């Protein structure tokens, strides 16, 4: 799959960063020393952590060279690590292991959470946010288009890219080791200029595996065109021409 496109991702930077701000606001720790931002992307979530805890040592980690290069360029005074979060093994435990909009790209969440929680210091937290399991109309439309006969044979992998479990699953995965768990969902109603903006939003994230699997540029353009038509039929314009894009997200904060 091609690398992430930082500029495309940050086209909706405000909307994508709000869940990080909301997650941070629910972390009840006054003076953490050491924080890791797993899947830090272009550093937007890391910057929110730094604003809340300016005295802490904060490191951003991401597996995308493009994202980490952008972080190093824009925030040269911080530590950035190019690595897979699944294999992360810090030299000492962290007070906050944080991850905003990342774990859905990684498999086997019970094992992943067990691994990461082992690196939370006593009194510290593991805090993460992912899209909620109840798939949106948009996700259903993507699957519908992926199931078109012309490319269905290429779509098995992309359809299985994402791992998103239920609140009950995450409770069971952490309840044995966490002293307290806060779990909640929020549905954001993003105001988009038009239906095409929803395509721009998803092209830089959830659509990437589907487009990467297609063999030609013509196929990719056709996939996006068909999806665009269905999105315009489903997400109708409001009286002022704008389009509401509901996006449900799941939050978990587990204290050690
Ligand atoms: C949707 S972005 C989230 C960026 C940022 N945390 C934010 O709040 O907007 C997902 C990021 O997770 C990274 N990512 C995905 N899988 C990863 C993995 N296994 N290890 C490290 N980073 C990963 C991607 O490279 C991408 O930068």
List the helices and strands and how they pair.
Layout: H1 6-10, H2 13-25, E1 34-38, H3 44-52, E2 57-62, H4 65-74, E3 79-82, E4 94-100, H5 109-117, E5 120-131, H6 137-146, H7 156-159, H8 167-175, E6 180-192, H9 195-203, H10 208-213, H11 217-234, E7 243-255
Parallel strand pairs: 1-2, 1-4, 2-3, 4-5
Antiparallel strand pairs: 5-7, 6-7
Helix pairs in contact: 2-3, 5-8, 6-11, 9-11
S-adenosylmethionine (SAM) binds at residues 4, 16-17, 20, 39-41, 44-45, 62-64, 67, 84-86, 100-102, 105-106, 205.
What does this structure look like?
- It is a single chain.
- The chain is α/β, with parallel strands linked by helices.
- Helix content is 40%, strand content 23%.
- It has helices at residues 6-10, 13-25, 44-52, 65-74, 109-117, 137-146, 156-159, 167-175, 195-203, 208-213, 217-234, and strands at 34-38, 57-62, 79-82, 94-100, 120-131, 180-192, 243-255.
- A 7-stranded mixed sheet has the order 3-2-1-4-5-7-6.
- The longest helix has 18 residues, at 217-234.
- It is globular.
- The structure holds S-adenosylmethionine (SAM).
- S-adenosylmethionine binds at residues 4, 16-17, 20, 39-41, 44-45, 62-64, 67, 84-86, 100-102, 105-106, 205.
